[in-house]
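Section 5.1 Outputs to date
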Amino acid sequence: MTDALSPATPRALAAHRLELGYDGRVIVPGLDLELAPGRITAIVGANGSGKSTLLRGLARLLRPLAGSVTLDGHDVHGIPARRFARMLGILPQEPIAPEGVTVAELVMRGRHPHQGVFGARSADDEAVVAEALRLTDMLEFAGRRIGELSGGQRQRAWIALALAQNPDVLLLDEPTTFLDIAHQLEVLDLLAELNARLGTTVVMVLHDLNLAARYADELVVMTRGRVHAAGSPGDVITEDVLAEAFGLDARVIADPETGSPLVVPAARTRQPRKEAT
């Protein structure tokens, strides 16, 4: 990682009695959460537990029904948009690119918060975009249209945009979606490097508990819109929590590579298939 990307400023992102929902339906019914500055936090939980809704609320994409989200003690909805975009970036679960836009053009959009009123590109902007494309292994696709890419390539292009924004806090909703296992590990390695080298606070929703436990410093387990458990992976990933939050009968052992918790679902006896007659 080169000097094209600037070191992050530690930012305190927190939810205070946060209530979120859609069309009169409450999804997050009053939640308190403080996210550790300069750390990697993974938010996990069963389907429908409110993970993505919480992330949208933290990113001010969803206005609270009650309570607040603060960044460095300031309500996020009171921070000017351009300033907020320099401090916090988000990669939603299903981002949509304008029709016909190329990868390089998409990633350059991440520089908009750092540009002047007239949006003139600088040499620094070009250097950051090139670095973001290199880090996500997308340089060779810079001139390709987004619509021509595979699902995994599109995901890496969006991650490159998030990197080019160079925020202090980066929120990602399922960043490994559409990626094969090799590229999942590459993306998570990249986010870990971003955190280690620049101090970027990374908050991501993940489905894979073992990847979450391997890469996160802190885990937040959600159930029915509430925080069921929070803390280090070793404290949070327990057989009791797996049963209560996921309805999963599993054993927890040490990952032989990292020592982090490794979830091994209990074996289920399969009935032998009948021979065809």
